[in-house]
Design a protein that fits this description.
5 strands
């Protein structure tokens, strides 16, 4: 329960994972890998952040959205695995930013999710390979979406 204790130290209380928005599942396990479907930002009781980064949101605001998205992914991991100590490594993170065409700071935004993983699991387990890309749009016009392999 080391990871659960670390969540408490960070002042994080996980919510129940959100249901998929369409015809897919939140997670698939194959062998020792856990593949997580893309999740977006938003916490219970808060309005879903919709709009484009570079127009409707600043880097700092979108960073928080990416961190919230990381919390959603951790909630899915907890639901799927039962014990977050079963996560042995962040393998791959793909962060997508709903941005204006001229926007270039995608990596800074997705750090919101990546830094959360490092805060929780440390550099050795919490840092994996990553891509941070801009998108013309995302489902429901959310600002950020992140998926990963763990």
């Amino acid at each position: 329960m080391k990871t659960e204790q670390r969540l408490k130290e960070l002042g994080i209380e996980l919510t129940a994972p959100t249901s998929p928005m369409a015809n897919y599942v939140n997670a698939v396990r194959t062998g020792n890998l856990l593949f997580l479907a893309g999740k977006g930002p938003g916490l219970p009781g808060k309005k879903l952040p919709t709009g484009k980064v570079g127009r409707d949101f600043t880097v700092e605001q979108a960073y928080v959205h990416a961190r919230e998205t990381g919390l959603s992914l951790i909630a899915v991991m907890k639901a799927e695995l039962g014990d977050l100590d079963r996560v042995k490594r962040i393998v791959k993170v793909l962060g997508m930013v709903n941005a204006t065409p001229d926007y270039t700071k995608h990596a800074l935004i997705i750090n919101g999710c990546s830094s959360l993983f490092v805060d929780l699991w440390g550099d050795d387990l919490g840092k994996g390979v990553r891509s941070a890309v801009g998108m013309g749009s995302l489902p429901n016009n959310v600002s950020v979406e992140v998926e990963g392999v763990f």
